[in-house]
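Quarterly update from the structural biology core.
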Amino acid sequence: MICNKLTDDEIRERPFWMLKTKNETFYQKDEDENGQRINSWKELKKHAEENHINFTGMWLQFRDHKEEIAVNKDGYFLVYALLVDIGSATHNHYFTCGYLENGQVHCTRWLMPEVMSMQSDVRKLEDCEEVLIYAKNDLEIHRQED
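Predicted structure, tokenized:
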């Protein structure tokens, strides 16, 4: 489901990512109209490629705590993670977010809902393509010919 608006309740209830274009903002909403779980990042990736949408930046937010991931980069990256501490009842939710620059994906793991930066690394582009949303989807350079 492609989401262009969140309610005040949705903003208060859960952390989320957002990608912006020059004129529009797209938000994480991982359930469809019927309440079924979906991966809104992958849905947006497909939507952007099919509709030639260009992005200008990425942010994470929970309530009034907002963190800029990157602006004006070649692409944006996101994966979700849940880490469980074996032998205890604790578990942590993470968003690993990043951006494409000079052929490399610069990633940071963010503890959620705290929106706290935990660890950073640089990854190879070929290891990230499945969940990388290119900033410029009006160009054919990102599409591989068979």
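Residues 8-140 form one domain.
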